[in-house]
Amino acid sequence: MAIVEGDFPRGAKARDEKREHHAHEKKRKVENLFKGAASKKVNKRRLNLKKKHSRIKKERQELQSLTTKEKKVIEKEKTMLESIEPLTFKMLAEGMQLLSRVQEVREMDVLLSLPGRIQAVVPITNISTPYTDLLNMLAQGEDVETKSLKEILVEGELFPCSIKEVTNDGSFKVTASLNPVDVNSEIPSTALCKGMKITAAVQSVEDHGYVMDLGISNARSFLPKVPDQDYAIGQIISTCVTGCQIDGHVATLTLSTVDSIKFKQNVELNLSTLIPATKLTVTVNKVLPQGLVVTFGNLVGYVHKDHLVNANDNVSSYEKSSNYTAVILYTLPLINAVYLSLKSSLVKPVKEKKEKDIIVPGQFFDAIITESTAVGLFIQLNKTAKGFVPVRHLSDNQDIFEDTRSLFPIKSRKRCRVLNHASVDDIYICTMKKSLLTQKALRYEDFTVGEVLEGKIDSVSPAGISVNLGVNLKGFIPKLHWADDPRLKKPELRFRVGNTITCRVLKVMVDRKNIHLTCKKALLDETVVAYTHPSQLDKNLGLKGTVVMIENNGVLVSFFGDLTGYMPRNRLSKKGISDISRYFYIGQVIDCVVHDIHETGKVTLTLAKPDTEQTVKRAAQPVSNLGSIVTCKVERVFDATDGGSSGLEVSIPSLKSTGFIPVGHLSDFPKLAPHLLHCYRPGQIIEEAVVWVCSKLQTVLTLKPIIVNYIKENCFPGSIEEMGMISVFPCVAARQRSFGIFASLLCPPNKFEVLFPSSQIPEELHSLSEKDVQHLTMEGRVIKVDKEAKKISLSALNTSVLQSDARVLEAFLRERERIRSHLMESSDEGLKYLANLKVGDVVIGKLLADFKSSANLEFELPNGLKAIVPAYHHAKKISKANDLIVGSVLYCDLILRVVYVTTKDDVIKRITGTSKLEPRGNKQKGKILLNTDYFSLVSLVDGKTKDIAFISNIRSINETVAPLPAPFELGVDVDVAIDSDTEVGKIATYHKTPVSWDAVNRSRNKRASSSDDGPKKKKAKKENAAKTNGKESQENVDPPTEVKTKKTQNKKAQKQLSESNGTKETEKSSLLETDKSTGEKKRKGKKDLTEQKEETSETCTNGELKDNPSSANETEAKKAAAKKKKDVPAKKETPVPKGKRSTSENKDKCAEDQKDLSPSKKRRTEAIAESTTKQPQQFNPLALPRLSIASTFKWDDDMTTLPLSTTSQVADSSDSEDEDADKEKAVIKDRRERAREKLEQAKQDEAKLSKIEEELNNPDRAPVTTDDFDRMVLSSPNSSILWLQYMAFHLENAEIEKARTVAQRALKIMSFREEQEKFNVWIAWLNLEHMYGTTEGYEATLQEALRYNEPFKVHRQMALNFEQSGKFDEAESLYTTMLKKYKQNKSVWMNACLFYVRNSKLDTARGVFQRALSILDKKEHVDLISRFGQLEMKFGQLGRGKTLFDTLLMSYPKRTDLWLVYIDTLTKVGDVESARQVLERCITLQLPAKKMKTIFQKFLEFETHHGDEERQDYVRKKALDYVESKTEVADE
Q1: Of the candidates 418, 436, 440, 438, which has an alpha carbon nearest to the alpha carbon of residue 427?
Q2: Which backbone phi and psi does 544 adopt, to 5 degrees?
Q3: Which pLDDT value is given to residue 138?
Q4: Which of 1167, 1312, 1416, 1443 is the most buried (most CB within 10 A)?
């Protein structure tokens, strides 16, 4: 083997060939790895390019082989749309032209129906140019003949319209125009041709025809006259071109209203000539699931499946290449897609429909759901009519919108109500909202004048009250009609926003979408007939009207509707009324009589006489039919659940009228009445109904069994004279007041209003609301009858009742059986299953929660029904959630949709065994199995008897609305007696009255007896108290009191005392003070008053008073008088205590002495006073407090009336006082002393100045004067805090005008860049005006603040300020304004919701929340729902808040922030277990590791605070399992 030597370069190492080969191979693999990927990518791209080029080449070859016609067809197919979508609101654009149908003609506008179930409004100025010119001439006062819109437009006519404006703020408002100028503006005059359909307006009327306005420049047209056709100027007409002459650029057209001329389609069609409403012959080119693709001429069109020939046609029934006549609906801009309709109602419109095909808005249907889409549900109303329910009308609860398919399955039946008719699409817009289903009226046309309504006060203004009558229905109570006397000073205190108000329809204005109401009590009376036209009146007919205008010549009176009458002055003067303005006032309700009715419709009135001699035709209540039993037929069912408007509308053949049965009159049991309503169907005959109200306004019937039976048995008294005491009568509650309940007692042919006083009503009825009391059946015992005033008082505390408790229970069970029979025929499988269940049937369900021995077990039955096992009926077996439960039925609650089940073997044997009924009344042993509101279920276990019976827990009909608790608990053995065996079950009674019932009876009887004897006992107590007080006063009276009594009886002594001792009031007050004092003060007061008595006895001329005192007091008085006469100076030894006053005479004379003394003597007197204060043993009258004397006194110079001690003191010291005065005058101060004083004063002034300077230079010193504040604001003019302090300083001093001036100065001085600082001043100024200013000033300041600041910030801050200061009405008004102006701002909606929630208005907050969801963009919904869910859980219902969060997290499961907020909120509200369940759900989510780490940390932190070590270990284990699972996945 030859050896090959290698070549070694200089300095190189020997090469290792194996190592180099290995490295080269590795490098080549890496290069091939990347090069291979790149080469594959390049090859793929090249391959695609080759395929594309080959495909294009092949298509070119195929096109060259085709004919020209085939090429055009292929080009058309390329331009065809892939799907056919219906017209939506978002597709509308300004200038777009559509086919429309006149749906409603109103006074000032026209309502149009557009394709896509859209409505548009045409203002009166957009009808035509000639009509607008006429209106302008009329507005300028010219006398022109103009017809109204209703005279020139007919409902149902088809016209092309042009869109003028589309609002995108969530209100879905569309403004359109019918003016030919707008509709035909894009048609060139040269494109006009014969056969074209075009809209024109009458410009002028000529002899042989009409000059028409087409709205096209360089085009003239003329419409020849045809017999029986008369058009007015401005009227728009749909015409066809019968003749067309084009001379250059000017076209002259001859028009015709006959639609027999066909449009030429053999020419090249242009989109500008295809006006909506043009008829064409089209050929089906392609059939798609959404509709048809058709061709006409050289163009392609589209027909949506909603616009096929018939409403129930299917797209698959149309064949390709078939021909149809179509009408152009609209052309979509930009893509130029022409949409057409094949509907026969548009191709060949019929002006009048058959009566059987007409569906009136407000009609109810049990519709079948045929299709579910994202925008709503399509339903089948009947064989020929289709309906559509938009998403917003599916339910009042907005949470269900995301799960419509499961809640509204296809082919299921749902209750709906027709709202309106989309005539272009020939489909009825319906609603399934419960609020609209229960609402009596949907449109303003549904209201009738004179109808009594209930509404909620929306707002109160000086002009009147705005009332909410339902969804989209508003009413207005003018100021003249808000009370019988409308001169209210503060109506807002009487009419609170949100309160319910009863009113009567005064006037219906459909065109203005408004109703005028009245709440005058005089007009709410049913006997006042609502006459609306003079033709309804007769002479001498009595009326009640309202004074609306007072003139010198008479009074104008208004009635219902537009009916008015005039009362001339000469008629009033005959009644003795000379001064009209004093006798009448605006808004007064008066009784008047029709005097004359003129041919022009003017009504002359005269006042009705107050006496009964005048023969007036009164529109009194016809009582002849009252209380009669009639047969009626159900015409309409108002499906409502909350009183008021719910009930049956019936026809009464015997009375030849219609009537109404309120839902409360269907049963004696309020809980059953709403469910009995569903048992009636239109056309059903009701054999026995009692006429409850019979008037010209309405006829009300009742089906209450107790009333019907009482009428049939003729047990009612004929008159009030026949009513005996202690008689028991059934009646129906009408209204509740604080002092009792008013009810109606039927006594054919009359009906009386009776009163149940509060003391005669069970306590359970006091807590009921007005709504719960209305139509309540009550039994009452007569306790008082006032035959003259026709007032009757009843008591509901009676123990003797019309029906026994067994008969009441039997009536309840019979009505329950009616409901069960109705549910058995229901289309709902769940309700049918519930109705078919009987006692003892075996049921199986899934347990919803773990077993707890002390709690009821809830489990779910088939069809979603809920079942409950009471704690007493638990089996010994311990079960967990989701376990199967097997039990036997005890009772089915058809009202609550709940099944009560027992799992105890011994109970199951009892209720499923054979029965042997014991004779009636025999005592038997029983065991309580179940307690409900109305009865207890008892198993009979005596002997061989194995059966169950019902025992009533209500003893009279008065306890149906508020039953007493069951007297025995479950499992208790009781003694019972069988009362009867009926079709609905065995009925038993307690053998002995339960102890708890005896206690209630005793308390009620005691209450009734105490209320009956109440006035007498109170009167006796008052007399006894008066006697006792009289004795005590006689025994404990003080001598001063007797002296006072004597003084008041002796007038002569009073006169002398007033001259000598001053005013009587001073003496009286001193006497009262002495009489009320205690202890030492009382004894001292007696001494002073004894002295007064002695002086009084000396002053009296008669020597003694008229009334002699008691012997003891007389002796004391004589001794004191004798002592005074013998030893006058003895008063020195009896000084007056400090603070006590001597007699008024002494004090007055001393005061007068001091006035007459010289200055030196005054000083001397003061010195004497000081010396006497140091010696308390001496009497010093000068040291007494001064009195302000109002009257002058006669002064005696000798001062003999003063005490001798005082006179001697003043006399002895007179000489010394004169000497001291002379000495004081002789003293002269030294000059040096005066200079020293001046120097000292200067030093003090200097010190004061230096102190002031130091205070001014101190930066921490608080300003106290105006100058201080001026210096502060000058140093920092842009500081709002300083300006606000300045304003507060003036407000503390009640200087409001100065504070306002400071605010104005601040806004002028502050820099324009300091927006926030100026904003603070604006808010402070607004608060100032609102709290201390006038309404006008506040409004002016608010408008100015809005002009200079961002309006939203101003409104928000003021709303917060109002809320913090407790002014909730003002805050609510501001939030209402903000919700209208700033609809797209999310924070406004949240602040409003928070405001209503804080003020306990949860229903209003929920309404605002629903409105926010419908208006805000969907991207804002997440945060909105999250925040409102937190509010619900904190302040509202926890369940609703949890539902909101659960629904939200189903849509956004990866939003960990929402999960954490949900958990934190549940933890804050204390629902720890629910928070733990949510955390358990979180850790099962498939989220990124970073987010899962956050969730596990949150879980561990949660268990640290709310769990134990076991729970913490559980969380750690779960986290470890998660990490291991992720690691295994990564390894794989």
Answers
A1: 418
A2: -115, 130
A3: 87
A4: 1416
* DSSP assigned state of 541: B
Do 292 and 302 contact (CB within 8 A), yes or no? yes
Of 418, 318, 405, 319, the C-alpha closest to 367 is 418
State the DSSP code for 645. T
Tens digit of each residue's pLDDT (9 = 90 or more) over 478-493: 988 988 888 887 888 8
d(CA 1028, CA 1021): 11
Contacts of 1240 (CB under 8 A, 6+ apart): none
Beta strand spans in 1300-1437 (E): none
Alpha-carbon span 359 to 381, nearest angstrom = 10
* Cβ neighbours of 1472 (radius 10 Å): 14
Enumerate the β-bridge partners of residue 968.
none
- Over its C-alpha atoms, the chain yields an Rg (Å, rounded) of 49
- d(CA 430, CA 394) in angstroms, rounded, equals 9
H helix runs in 1350-1385, sequence order: 1351-1364, 1368-1381
The reported pTM is 0.43
Query: What is the spatial distance between Cα 857 and Cα 878, in angstroms, rounded to a whole number?
Result: 11
User: Which 8-state DSSP code applies to residue 617?
Assistant: B
Sign of CA dihedral 455, 456, 459, 460: positive
- CB distance 719 to 732 below 8 Å: no
3-class DSSP string for 1009-1037: HHHHCHHHHHHHHHHHHHHHHHHHHHHCC
Query: Which residue in this structure is represented by tokens 């009428």?
Result: 711
DSSP-based three-state secondary structure for 1048: helix
Distance (Å, whole) CA 832 – CA 739: 46
Per the CB < 8 A criterion, the answer to whether 221 and 201 are in contact is no
Neighbours of 1112 (CB within 10 A): 9
CB 96 within 8 A of CB 162: yes
Contact 576, 609 (CB under 8 A): no
Q: Which amino acid would we find at residue 836?
A: N
Alpha helices, H only, 1036-1184: 1039-1049, 1051-1061, 1064-1076, 1079-1099, 1111-1126, 1144-1156, 1159-1174
CB-CB contact of 664 with 643 (8 Å): yes
Q: Could you list the beta-strand ranges (E) of 1291-1358.
A: none
Average pLDDT score over residue span 1145-1164: 44
- The helix (run of H) or strand (run of E) holding residue 861 is none
Burial class of residue 786 (count of CB atoms within 10 Å of its CB; 0-12, 13-18, 19+) = exposed
Cα 1040 from Cα 1093, distance rounded (Å): 8
- Residue 789 has what DSSP assignment? T
| Cis previous bond, 862, omega within 30 | no
**Structure letter (DSSP) for residue 525:** S
Beta bridge partners of 1529: none
Which phi and psi angles does 481 have, rounded to 5°? Answer: -115, 15
What's the average model confidence in pLDDT over 581-589? 84
CA dihedral 499, 503, 509, 512 (to 10 degrees): -10
What six digits make up the tokens of 473?
Answer: 């229905």
1278 residue type, one letter: N
What residues contact 1431, with CB distance under 8 A and at least 6 apart? 1393, 1394, 1397, 1405, 1441
Residue 210 near residue 154, CB atoms below 8 Å: no
Q: Does position 1194 have pLDDT exceeding 50, yes or no?
A: no
AA identity, residue 1144: S
Question: Token pair for residue 225?
Answer: 């006259």
Of all helices (H) and strands (E), which one includes residue 1318? helix 1315-1332
Polymer length in residues for the chain: 1532
**What is the rounded CA–CA span in Å between residue 218 and residue 241?**
16
Is the pLDDT at 838 greater than 70, yes or no?
Answer: yes
Sign of the dihedral through C-alpha 1017, 1023, 1025, 1027:
negative
